Amino acid sequence: MEKTLKDFLAFGKIYDEKSIKELNSLALAYVGDAVFELLVRTMVLKGNIPAHKLHTKSIKYVQAKGQKELIEKVLQSLSEEELGVYNRGKNSKPHTVAKNQTLGDYMEATGLEALFGYLYLLDRLDRLVEIFGEMIN
C-alpha cells in the first residue's frame, strides 16, 4: 500500500481534537520546534548556498531571542484560543535553558513552539503558514 508523506503526517487521524488540546504544553513545543525549524530552513533555502551559510542564516530565527522577537510581531493577531496555547507554553516549567539564552526569551520561544505544534497537530496548516508569514515580513 502506497502512502504519501501527507498521509504519514496526518496526526489528526491518530489524535482527536480533544486529545491534542489536552497534550502537555512542552509536548506541543517539542513538535512545534521541529515544525518551526522546517519552516525556517525552507525559507532560507534560496539559490546554491553552502550548508554552513544556510545554518548561519537560520540561527537568528531559531534561537530563543529570535523567536521571542518574531512572536511579539503577531501576538495582537492571535485568536483567543491561539493566545491561550501560547501562554500555556510560555508559562510551562522548562527542565533546562540554553546557557546563551535568557529565561524570559526561552519561555516566550517555548510559547511560540507550543503554538506551532498545536496548529500543526490540528492540521491547521493554512493558519500556521499565515502566522509564520506575518512573523517573517
Automatic annotation (TrEMBL):
GO cellular component: cytoplasm
Enzyme Commission code: 3.1.26.-
Keyword Coiled coil on entry: no
SUPFAM superfamilies (UniProt xref): RNase III domain-like (SSF69065)
Cofactor(s) listed in the protein's UniProt record: Mg(2+)
Record-annotated active site: 33
Keywords, comma-separated and alphabetical: Cytoplasm, Endonuclease, Hydrolase, Magnesium, Nuclease, Ribosome biogenesis, RNA-binding, rRNA processing, rRNA-binding
Residue ranges constituting the RNase III domain according to the UniProt record: 27-121
Any GO MF annotation of the entry: ribonuclease III activity
Enzymatic class: hydrolase
GO biological process: rRNA processing
InterPro entries with a match to the protein in the record: Mini3_fam (IPR008226), RNase_III_dom (IPR000999), RNase_III_sf (IPR036389)
Localization of this protein: Cytoplasm
Chief location category: cytoplasm
Family, as annotated: Belongs to the MrnC RNase family.
Described purpose of this protein according to its UniProt entry: Involved in correct processing of both the 5' and 3' ends of 23S rRNA precursor. Processes 30S rRNA precursor transcript even in absence of ribonuclease 3 (Rnc); Rnc processes 30S rRNA into smaller rRNA precursors.
Subunit structure: Homodimer.
Protein name: Mini-ribonuclease 3
Naturally occurring in which organism (per UniProt): Peptoniphilus lacrimalis
Underlying gene: mrnC
